[in-house]
UniProtKB/TrEMBL annotation:
Pfam family, one: AP_endonuc_2
Molecular function per GO: isomerase activity
InterPro entries, per the entry: IolE/XylAMocC-like (IPR050312), Xyl_isomerase-like_sf (IPR036237), Xyl_isomerase-like_TIM-brl (IPR013022)
Keywords linked to the UniProt accession: Isomerase
Domain Xylose isomerase-like TIM barrel: 22-259
Lineage, opening ranks: Bacteria, Pseudomonadati, Pseudomonadota, Gammaproteobacteria, Pseudomonadales
Domain of life of the native organism: Bacteria
Keyword Isomerase in annotation: yes
Name assigned to this protein: Sugar phosphate isomerase/epimerase
Amino acid sequence: MSQRTLSLAALTVLELSPPEMVEVAARAGYSHVGLRLEPATPEEHHFPLVRDAALRQQTAARLRDTGIKVLDIEILRLKPDTCVADFDPLLSVGAEFGATELLVAGNDPDPARMTANFAALCDLAARYGIHPHLEFMPWTDAKNLTQALEIVTAANRDNGCVLVDAFHFDRSASRLDDLRQVPASRLRYLQLCDVAGPRPHDMAEILRQARNERRFPGDGDCDLHGLLSAVPADIPLSLEIPTRQLLEQGVPALQRAQWALEKTRDVLSHL
């Protein structure tokens, strides 16, 4: 097994401040982290890196001291009222941290408008050397791999990509045969976790599981070997594994981050 970029995603240790997250990633053995510059929900506890210069300085210092790099920044949403120019401050901060990938959600029922906004975002991000990735999620307006790829392809920007998350791939019933057809240039990183049990019929339950109840790689029912075999070899992996039950049981962030890394390496060793 060759050396692969393994990044600690913010959602795995969301209770930590960015400097604490960098420290945990370094101690656990990761090479990279993902920084959440914009909260996913209004209720989510958030550390405002974009607005807090002191917090940015502390985070940058921890990155320098530990040698940890930033893989991706998140999460921008394309909505009906989105003004892409408003995203410039977030992209600037991402570039300041050296991020090369950006996670984007599609929350616009008009595919033509979402495509136009994604193309405009790609143009804006290109100035910073950043690649926007449209992440398909079954409760959004880019529900599966096919829909996300259609939008990215229609936007027709060299830096436009699709983000595959193992959870959403499973819960959206996306197909490995379709994933194998995606051009390698459209796949620059992948979010890894595992998923337990059959696909719920209730979308609210799928959403709850996505944000609170994922499994470490190898501990669920996903065909992770099939998934990883269908994407470019050595694609960077962002380990996004929220486990609310372990958090409530008092399992420290460092332990959860270590388990995620150990389980991922075990899965990779059997590819």
